Amino acid sequence: MGSRMIHAALIAALAFLPYACAADVGDACDKSGDTAGCVDGAICTNLKGGDNVCRKQCTSSDECAANEACNGVSGANIKSCQPK
Questions:
Q1: For the purposes of burial, counting CB atoms within 10 Å of the CB of 33, is it exposed (0-12), middle (13-18) or buried (19 or more)?
Q2: How far apart are CA 31 and CA 45, in angstroms?
Q3: Is 33 inside a domain boundary?
Q4: What residues make up the domain containing 36?
Q5: 32-77: pLDDT as tens digits
Q6: Residue 3 resides in a domain
Q7: How far apart are CA 11 and CA 79, in angstroms?
Q8: Strand runs labelled E in 1-84
Q9: Is 0.85 topped by the overall pTM?
Q10: 5, part of any domain
Q11: Total structural domains in the chain?
C-alpha cells in the first residue's frame, strides 16, 4: 500500500516537471525561437551580444513596454517585445 502512494506521488511530481523548468520572461534560455524553454506567452529571443533571453510574445509594439518594440525572433515566425 505504501508503494502505491509513492508511485502516485512520483507520477504527480513528473506531471509538473515541464512547468518547473520553464524560464520566466527576462531569464536566460537555450535556443532562439524556442517556446518550450520559456513560460507560456514567452519565446527565447537572441539579443545583441549573443545572449538568449525569454521575452514576451507580441503582435504589435502596443503590447510592449515603452522601452521595447515588437520585432521578429530569429528561428521563428513569432515576434517578441525587445529592447529598442
A1: middle
A2: 8
A3: yes
A4: 23-83
A5: 999 999 999 999 999 777 789 999 999 999 999 999 999 999 889 9
A6: no
A7: 35
A8: 42-46, 52-58, 68-72, 79-83
A9: no
A10: no
A11: 1
Q: What are phi and psi of 43, to 5 degrees?
A: -140, 145
Give domain status of residue 40, yes or no. yes
Q: Which residue has the cell 521575452?
A: 55
Enter the C-alpha cell of residue 51: 545572449
Question: Which residue would you say has higher pLDDT here, 47 or 1?
Answer: 47
Q: For residues 60 and 23, which has the higher predicted lDDT (pLDDT)?
A: 60
Q: Is the pLDDT of residue 27 over 80?
A: yes
CA distance 7 to 19: 20
Residues found in the chain? 84
Q: How many helices (H) and strands (E) does the chain have?
A: 2, 4
Q: Which 3 state secondary structure label does DSSP give 11?
A: helix
